[in-house]
Amino acid sequence: MHVPDGFINAPVSAVAGVVAAGAVAVSLRGARRELGGERAAPLAGLVAAFIFAVQMLNFPVAAGTSGHLLGGALAAILVGPFTGVLCIAVVLLMQGILFADGGLTALGVNITVMGVVTVVVAYALFRGLTGVLPRTRRSTTAAAFVAALVSVPAAAVAFTAIYAIGGTTDVPIGKVLTAMVGVHVLIGIGEAVITALTVGAVLAVRPDLVHGARGLAAPLKLRVDGELVDAPAAAPAPAAARAHSTRKVWATGLVAALLLAGFVSYYASANPDGLEKVAADKGIDEKVEEHGAADSPLADYGVKSITDPRISGGLAGVIGVGVTVVVGSGVFWAVHRRRTRQEPATTSHGSV
After folding, report:
1. N or C: less crowded end of the chain, CB within 10 Å?
2. Domains of the chain, earliest start first
């Protein structure tokens, strides 16, 4: 659902840019609370890189139409809603600058629609569901499935609303809305499957690394003299063992992202995604503009100097994952460092 330049007029694009900048600023403050541990920054960077990789895997959803992961639900559940918005913003920035995917003037629109709307809708629904469902891994995974499914058509509605205000062509908005929601409900099913599988996999090995599953494990109950009492809590694993386990999860996730982007992406559907198909069918794309980074050596997810499409696309995907994990980890490390610097000052002030 990457909106290109020319779909939305300049004034509305500017307003969306302000909204996106405000959301990023708020998320930077909120992420300081979510990025508590020293290993949180590289894990959040990994989530951004993984989302970048999976977004390269377009899957068919209808005749002549494909879809891809948006990632807002997945990021919010894994690392928290504020950090999740930042993850999607990093991914969209890398895609726009390096790969000419998503307009540069439309960056604010894309962050608002694909980042803010998906994260807010998905995380609110996820929290609501986990609040009423039993606190188990299965119900948490099911809640992730539903939250991801709903977040995609919600983003389609948000785009349609923005287009109704600032669209550059005169098209029947009702027909656009029907088409956008219809195809993105189908895409949402794919989003839900990917999100649930990923969240479920992490829950199976390290549930403590899933932000949305904190407090998941209920205390074991023992029956003593006919009454149920809480069993003594198990001793936590040594810090060295937890660190080793976290590094193993990080390495496994990075290898998976590299394989998806560098190899599996070659077999992705070549059909236009939901927005591209609706735009072509309804005439939204009549005034689309050439991307400002169209001359990038990595434009369209290929290395221009390499003629073999398999090698070109695979290498571009590997470069994208590498750059995203480095930039994302750097951003989140800076946020974490800012928090750790403020905490001593706050403590000192409070003790005076």
Report:
1. C
2. 10-218+241-344 (1.10.1760.20)
Query: Bridge partners of 62?
Result: 65
Q: Do 98 and 296 meet the contact criterion of CB atoms below 8 Å apart?
A: yes
Element (H, E) at 170: none
pLDDT digits (tens, 9 = 90+) for 132-144: 999 899 999 999 9
Q: Is 168 helix (H, G, I), strand (E, B) or coil?
A: coil
What pLDDT sits at residue 352? 37
pLDDT in tens, 310-344: 999 999 999 999 999 999 999 999 998 876 666 55
Nearest-angstrom CA–CA distance, 325 and 321? 6
Summarize pLDDT for 143-164 with one digit per residue, the tens: 999 999 999 999 999 999 999 9
DSSP structure string for 8-42: B-HHHHHHHHHHHHHHHHHHHHHHHHH--STTHHH
> Whose CA is closest to 117, among 91, 88, 141?
88
- Structure token digits, residue 217: 């494990």
Residues in the chain predicted with pLDDT less than 70, given as ranges, are 37-38, 217-244, 339-352
DSSP for 83-138, written as a single string: HHHHHHHHHHHHHHHHH--S-STTHHHHIIIIIIIHHHHHHHHHHHHHHHS-SSHH
141 and 126 in contact (C-beta within 8 Å)?
A: no
d(CA 71, CA 274): 15
